[in-house]
Design brief:
The complex is a heterotetramer, with 1 copy of chain A, 2 copies of chain B and 1 copy of chain C. In chain A, the strands form 2 sheets. Chain A has a 9-stranded mixed β-sheet with strand order 2-1-3-4-11-10-9-6-7, sandwiched between helices. In chain A, strands 5-8 form a two-stranded antiparallel sheet. Helix content of chain A is about 25%, strand content about 25%. Chain A contains 5 helices and 11 strands. Chain A is an alpha/beta fold. Chain B has 2 helices and 3 strands; from the N terminus they run βαβαβ. Chain B starts with a strand and ends with a strand. Chain B is α+β, with helices and mostly antiparallel strands. In chain C, α21 links the parallel β17 and β18. Classes of the chains: A alpha/beta, B alpha+beta, C alpha+beta. β2 of chain B pairs antiparallel with β2 of chain D, so a sheet runs across the interface. The complex binds adenosine-5'-diphosphate and magnesium ion. Adenosine-5'-diphosphate (ADP) binds next to β4, β5 and α18 of chain C.
Chain lengths: ~230, ~90, ~775, ~90
């Protein structure tokens, strides 16, 4: 897999994502937000961080970068696009995913391990998981509260586009398990065609037991092997 | 050409959650101000702009709001001109 | 003009129109004594201009000139074979093996945080990050050491909340994980919070760069954010006591941090250093351009000339005085090699930042400032940076503290009521309870290197591409330093080292932050000197040299000083990340062993504060040699893979340390069944803060080896119990009663205290 | 008693850096709106309040601003009444 890690001024999880791709045998390259052209990549990854300081709204200014036109085109052509944390926020601002990520209900930044339940195992990113599997992955964000209008929310549920939800140790979507107030404990969603995934938690930080968890590995291996199948 | 001072108020859409408004509401209550209702918190952006007319200035700022300054999914905006100063002739 | 400076064709200095005349009042307002002003006149050979007075005032402030601490700091051991850079640079640097060097330093932002907690703390983090990356190192971790008054006060909650948000928002945005710190709440810090931030940076040894203005003819460039009117005279301000009206008068001095610009500046600076286009780089920190330029000139033995109208400013009409003394954040002074200025500009442009040529390095040893070509300041650089008079004062212990120390505590040795109730009260005190409410607001895992997050004895960052890791901790119990400064400082050192060995790290070097009151008062000077002496002795015994630090004096409100608080930031090296030892128990059936000896001491303990609102008595005795043996014992057990957990005893004593070891991060708690056989009353036994104790747990099969290793080092070791299932609860039995609680009770008591205290509204006034 | 709708604008003090304003300014520039100057960003808070008179309502909100809604060290505030409705007699 040749993956582009798109970096914006203020991205700070770019290197972590780059390393995650390498760890699963992929080939990662940084693409600076002012560059153009993503034709040569199999996947486009938008990393976490604070693009433009998250000033105005998280992702709002980054979404205006030249490279974003290419990201939109890449996604519209069915290319695999993954946005993590700030990357998710940018994807929403760019209209590639519906809804918006607003201030955490607690009004505080939340940094800790959460548990996620896998709700879809038929996307490019999640074939390596089993349905209902619980993952332990860190979050670190101040604006991860997923919001949309009622119609969009219902559509997401009826079309089964929620990929990850925050759950408790028992795997239940309780209020206590919800770190930011997201509607229906949403932690990650996909677009209608399933090729764009946005998620607030950081699977790229769950790649080694030494650092606390290896539950993110399957996401990157899924992506790698699915892309390999597609190109063959 | 005149110089305009504009004020843009961006506020959460009615019906959507406003955690900040809720927190302020609670805080005011616990400080004893209890006859308060319906607290909403938004952003206000001030900027100065040169334009041929007030209408053009406002139009331009509306365009900025639609493109960048507000998120149509969660926010509404209002623009007002707070001052107009004739630019000095060159 | 004095001949000695070697000045031949000296540019005449013009007094600027509109500058106030120099009067004794103006001199005093600048924080300079009459003697100091005379000295300035001798150095100058004439009366200084207003601009020059401002420059001297900043450079000779306590903050930059270390007037009252320099002589004491000389007493600290600073060398060891692994020290690459000792005190005097932006940060200390040590060799951590495999070709890597670690830059690290701690810095205070107490005064700004007292006035505006959010921005004060945020800009504190910004400053310490810059100190690290200007050495050529990439910041990889931060820690924060905080002190506040009691949380029952709304103002204190406001300060605490603002400080934590400020630290979090800044570090999170730049993307540097927080790996630990400490916080204490005590009326001794009411009105005068302490906000110290420590940063660690890694580099390859050959990437080290120092901050000196070398190469005559090279170009000085101002890089990063523009200069505004914020924080003018911050350095002088940080060297004064706060008074009732500080709030009002110091408002214009508030600096606002911009972590986004900092992140860009960080990347740009590391790229600049790697490019080789620059020979020196320094943060414009306290005293702004003035101190960065004069210090860089001083280090190289050169001079500098700068044109003020070339400095990019944020506001119109700024005077040279204001530009020179502004402490606007996120700015750097860079020395570009002549002819390579464009490379510098290009790198800055890529990162969407500005770079402006503002002057050059000269050979005449002068600090010369021009405004539109006219000299407005012309000062010999060396006396400016090194000529600040230093003082040695008389130190005398106050009798009040002698009396406190001699307080009869015998009545407090007897527990009031139920032991379990007392225990839970202590475990739920803000000083002992989990600090989760804080570090859940800090990104702790960004950069994917955090092997031990906040919540353990020390934070640990692995070095990618090697098997190594760095551990770091900050420690100081101000109450103990207050009661007996020398002992208290040794205890801070001993605790820091224990925290390091508990994760399996060899204590290696120290940075420190001396937070004290007004040194002109003899009892404060006494505290300062004693604390430095205690620290020095411990540094010698532990072989942990001091490579840098920070001094923050005048921490007083309305004449009342804070507890003397010499915060120790200690770093250690772990050779094999696989051997990192956790704090929490790991397996049911494991044996719990206490290393060290329980004592009858309760002086200065959290127990006294909680149950009797007392800060009194003699601090626990500390034996540095015994501490050293204890450290070596734990390290050997770790190295031999004989222990499964290790946790030291500090605030709250043995009982609270055991509770922390069963709880872990709350996710997967254990139970424990403990029997303490000592002939000691239960209060000091359970809650006393006697030094030199570490709790380890091991597989029953390793017990013999554990006891053997302890014996070899002459460290007392005794089996005190074993790890059980959480459902079996937590019990400690003593000869005179027991503590017993369910894990859910322990857990809610320990984890929920801070957050429930902080959900109460925090108004700003 | 009347019901008042108030609008409170809290903005950064002049002279202080406004990083958010700066970032928005730069973004607008790079989108081609280049005749813009002096962008500052603040908060706007809307709330409803019952009081005997307009003056009392405004006074009360001023007190809230000083105590909670604004940071006196870094921000200035302005209060305006946007609507007044006679409360229904009980
Ligand atoms: N201000 C803070 N920032 C980050 N972590 C903190 C802070 N205060 C405390 N912690 C963390 O909470 C844990 C307990 O702190 P403390 O009781 O001071 O530990 P110790 O007694 O071992 O020094 C440590 O892991 C520490 O790093
Ligand atoms: Mg400890």
């Amino acid at each position: 897999m040749r993956a582009a890690v798109v970096t914006f001024p203020g991205s700070n999880c770019d290197y972590d994502l780059y390393k995650a791709i390498q760890q699963v045998g992929g080939e990662a390259s940084f693409v600076w937000h002012r560059e153009r052209g993503l034709e040569s990549y199999d996947a486009v990854l938008l990393p976490g961080g604070f693009s433009y300081g998250d000033y105005l709204r998280a992702g709002a200014i980054a979404r205006m970068s030249p490279i974003m036109e290419d990201v939109v085109e890449f996604a519209n052509n069915g290319g695999a696009v993954l946005g993590i944390c700030n990357g998710f926020q940018i994807l929403c601002e760019a209209g590639l995913l519906p809804g918006a990520l607003v201030r955490n209900a607690s009004l505080s930044f939340q940094s800790k391990d959460v548990r996620l339940r896998v709700e879809r195992t038929d996307t490019l990113f999640t074939t390596g998981y089993t349905l209902g599997q619980t993952l332990r992955v860190p979050i670190a964000h101040g604006e991860g509260n997923y919001e949309a209008d009622q119609r969009t929310l219902e559509q997401l549920e009826t079309e089964g586009r929620v990929v990850f939800r925050y759950v408790d140790q028992a795997g239940e979507t309780t209020e206590d398990a919800n770190p930011n107030g997201s509607w229906h404990n949403i932690a990650g969603i996909t677009n209608a065609t399933g090729n764009v995934l946005g998620m607030m938690p950081h699977p790229e930080r769950s790649m080694e037991q030494l650092l606390g968890s290896v539950d993110g590995v399957a996401l990157f291996t899924s992506l790698g092997s699915n892309l390999a199948m597609l190109t063959n | 050409m005149s110089q305009f001072q504009l004020e843009i108020r961006v506020k959460p859409r009615p019906g959507l959650l406003d955690p900040q408004g809720k927190a302020i509401h609670n805080a005011l209550h616990s400080l004893g101000w209890d006859s308060i209702e319906d607290v909403r918190v938004g952003k206000v952006i001030y900027l100065e702009l040169e334009a041929d007319s007030r209408e053009i200035a406002v139009d331009r700022v509306h365009a900025m709001c639609r493109k960048l300054l507000s998120n149509p999914v969660t926010e509404d905006f209002e623009v007002s001109v707070s001052e107009e100063v004739e630019a000095e002739p060159l | 003009m004095s001949k000695a400076d070697g000045a031949i064709t000296e540019v005449p200095v013009s007094a600027r129109a509109g500058d106030p005349p120099i009067t004794p009042e103006l001199v005093a307002d600048h924080g300079l004594s009459e003697d100091e002003y005379e000295r300035i006149q001798r150095i100058m050979g004439r009366e200084p201009t207003f601009t020059e007075l401002g420059v001297f005032s900043a450079m000779w402030s306590e903050h930059c000139g270390y007037k009252n601490s320099k002589r004491l700091l000389k007493l600290l051991p600073i060398s060891a074979p692994w020290v690459i850079q000792g005190p005097g640079e932006n940060a200390g640097v040590i060799d951590v093996g495999d070709g890597y060097a670690l830059a690290f330093k701690i810095e205070s932002h107490n005064h700004p945080s007292a006035v505006e907690p959010y921005q004060g703390a945020a800009t504190g983090v910004g400053g310490i990050l810059r100190d690290i990356f200007t050495m050529g190192a990439r910041p990889v971790a931060v820690l924060d050491s905080l002190r506040f008054g009691d949380l029952t006060s709304g103002r204190v909650r406001y300060l605490f909340d603002g400080v934590v948000r400020g630290i979090g928002d800044y570090g999170n945005c730049v993307g540097i994980p927080n790996i630990g710190g400490e916080v204490a709440f005590d009326r001794g810090y009411e009105g005068n919070p302490i906000v110290n931030a420590m940063c660690l940076g890694l580099m390859k040894k050959e990437e080290l760069i120092t901050a000196s203005a070398s190469g005559v003819g090279n170009t000085l460039m101002a890089v990063g954010a523009r200069t505004g009117r914020d924080g003018i005279h911050g350095a002088t301000f940080a060297s004064e006591e706060l008074s009732e009206d500080s709030d009002e008068s110091s408002r214009p001095q508030v600096q606002v941090g911009d972590p986004f610009t900092e992140k860009l500046l960080l990347e740009a600076s590391l790229e600049l250093i790697a490019s080789g286009a620059i020979t020196g780089i320094q943060d414009m920190g306290a005293a702004g351009i003035t101190s960065s330029a004069s210090e860089m000139a001083g280090r190289a033995g050169n001079g500098v000339e700068m044109e003020m109208s070339s400095v990019p400013v944020r506001e119109k009409g700024m005077t040279p005085y204001e530009i020179l003394l502004s402490e606007s954040q996120e700015r750097m002074l860079v020395v570009a090699e002549k002819g390579r200025e464009n490379e510098v500009r290009e790198i800055l442009e890529k990162w969407e930042l500005e770079a402006a040529e503002i002057g050059c390095v000269t050979d005449d040893g002068r600090f010369r400032i021009l405004e539109d070509g006219l000299a407005v300041a012309n000062i010999p650089a060396l006396p400016l940076t090194d000529g600040c008079p230093t003082y040695e004062r008389e130190g005398l212990e106050s009798s009040e503290i002698q009396n406190l120390r001699n307080t009869d505590l015998s009545e407090h040795l007897i527990p009031e009521g139920d032991l379990t109730k007392t225990f839970l009260k202590l475990l739920g005190s803000p000083n002992v309870a989990s600090k989760r409410w804080i570090y859940h607001q800090y990104d702790t895992t960004v950069r994917t290197a955090t092997a031990v997050r906040p919540g353990g004895d020390s934070g640990v960052i692995r070095i990618r591409g090697t098997t190594r890791a760095i551990a770091a901790t900050t420690d100081c119990n101000g109450r103990l330093v207050y009661l007996e400064p020398r002992t208290g400082a040794k205890i801070a050192m001993a605790e820091a080292a224990r925290n390091l060995v508990c994760v399996g790290a060899v204590p290696t070097a120290v940075t420190n932050n001396l937070n004290f009151g007004n040194p002109l008062k003899s009892h404060i000077y006494y505290q300062l000197r004693e604390a430095v002496l205690g620290m020095a002795e411990a540094c010698d015994t532990f072989e942990t040299p001091v490579t840098g630090g920070n001094v923050s004096l005048y921490n007083e409100t309305d004449g009342r000083a804070i507890y003397p608080t010499p915060v120790i930031g200690m770093v250690g090296v772990i050779e094999d990340v696989e051997k990192i030892t956790p704090q929490a128990f790991q397996r049911t059936g494991d044996i719990i062993v206490l290393l060290g000896t329980n004592t009858n001491e309760i002086g200065g303990s959290e127990y006294l504060y909680i149950t009797a609102s007392l800060v009194a008595g003699t601090p626990p005795a500390v034996n540095l040699d015994a501490e050293r043996s204890l450290q070596q014992t734990v390290l050997e057990m770790n190295y031999e893979l004989k222990i499964r957990s290790a946790h030291d005893c500090s605030e709250g004593g043995l009982a609270c340390a055991l509770a922390e070891a069963v709880l872990g991060d709350g996710d997967n708690p254990f139970g424990a069944s403990i029997t303490l056989d000592d002939q000691i009353r239960p209060v000091p036994l359970l809650f006393g803060e006697g030094q030199g104790r570490i709790i380890v747990s091991c597989d029953p099969l390793s017990l013999e080896a554990v006891l053997r290793i302890a014996k070899k080092h002459d460290v007392p070791a005794i089996q005190i119990g074993y790890v059980t299932e959480a459902s079996e609860g937590f019990q400690i039995t003593t000869r005179e009663g027991m503590v017993s609680a369910s894990l859910s009770k322990l857990s809610s008591t320990y984890f929920d205290t801070l957050s429930s205290l902080m959900t109460v509204t925090t108004a700003s006034s």
